[in-house]
Design goal:
By secondary structure, the chain is α/β, with parallel strands linked by helices. It has a single domain, classed as Rossmann fold (3-Layer(aba) Sandwich). The chain contains seven helices and seven strands. Strands 3-2-1-4-5-6-7 form a seven-stranded parallel sheet, sandwiched between helices. Helix 5 links the parallel strand 5 and strand 6. It is globular, with a radius of gyration of 17 Å. Keywords: Oxidoreductase. InterPro entries: NAD(P)-bd_dom_sf, SDR_DHRS6-like, SDR_fam. Belongs to the short-chain dehydrogenases/reductases (SDR) family.
């Protein structure tokens, strides 16, 4: 298996994308630690993994609390011996409106939240990965330089900001054998609410793809597992495009 004897920590692991990554990592043999603020959703993901023969543990962690994150990652390393993969799927509070309609306070607060949680969790994992001289830091979202959609509000801006953060981490951590990779997504349609209002957004993502289809949650888990594995060891300091060609970043 691709991730046998590896330890993966997923913040926001109870969400749709976090659960998909946890499932993908566990299916390839990783010991998965899913963290978040909602015990019920975390246990749902962990129970599904265990039912399929995988290893999963849960922890209630506020990823905006640096002390809580550091205590958690220390406990993971004490239990498993290492932290080999870390990813934060929490992100910012999305505001899909024209920029002119968003209050300055709301805009700044949302961007700040996204960057703060990413910085906290990455610093915590990097502290151990530097000692190990190995590790993979994954990010999700990515920077789409060809974005031409109005009404995206703070969403693409926030993802661009996180991607800039990832690039800086890449420069500083590469000398320690740590890889940094972003999964560039154009939207995972099977995470969208199944309501009529979302149909146009879902179809626009499909239409933007040359193959006229969208990435699924299973695709996310499979690609993330490959990139994080030693099979993907030549991939670092870059984005891996999982948008089925919809993004050109």
């Amino acid at each position: 298996m691709l991730l046998e004897n590896k330890t993966a920590v997923i913040y926001g692991g109870g969400g749709s994308i976090g659960g998909a990554m946890a499932t993908g990592f566990a299916a390839e043999g990783a010991r998965v630690f899913v963290a978040g603020r909602t015990p019920a959703t975390l246990e749902t993901v962990a129970d599904r993994i265990r039912a399929e023969g995988g290893q999963a543990e849960t922890a209630v962690v506020d990823a905006l609390d640096a002390s809580a994150v550091n205590d958690h990652i220390d406990a993971v390393v004490e239990k498993s011996g290492s932290v080999d993969i870390s990813i934060n799927l929490i992100g910012l509070d999305a505001i899909f409106q024209p920029l002119a309609d968003i209050s300055t306070a709301d805009f700044v607060a949302a961007i700040s939240k996204g960057l703060t949680t990413q910085l906290i969790t990455t610093k915590a994992a990097a502290r151990h990965m530097v000692k190990q001289e190995s590790g993979v830091l994954l990010f999700f979202g990515g920077s789409d330089h060809a974005n031409s959609l109005p009404g995206m509000g703070n969403v693409q801006i926030g993802m661009d900001a996180v991607e800039s953060l990832r690039r800086q981490w890449a420069v500083e951590l590469a000398p320690h054998g740590i890889r940094t990779v972003t999964l560039l997504t154009g939207g995972i349609v099977d995470t969208f609410p199944d309501i009529p209002e979302m149909a146009p957004a879902r179809q626009s993502i499909i239409d933007a793809s040359p193959l006229k289809r969208a990435a699924t949650m299973a695709d996310v888990g499979s690609v993330a597992a490959f990139v994080a594995s030693d099979k993907g060891r030549s991939i670092t300091s870059t984005q891996v495009n999982i948008s089925v060609g919809a993004c050109y970043g």
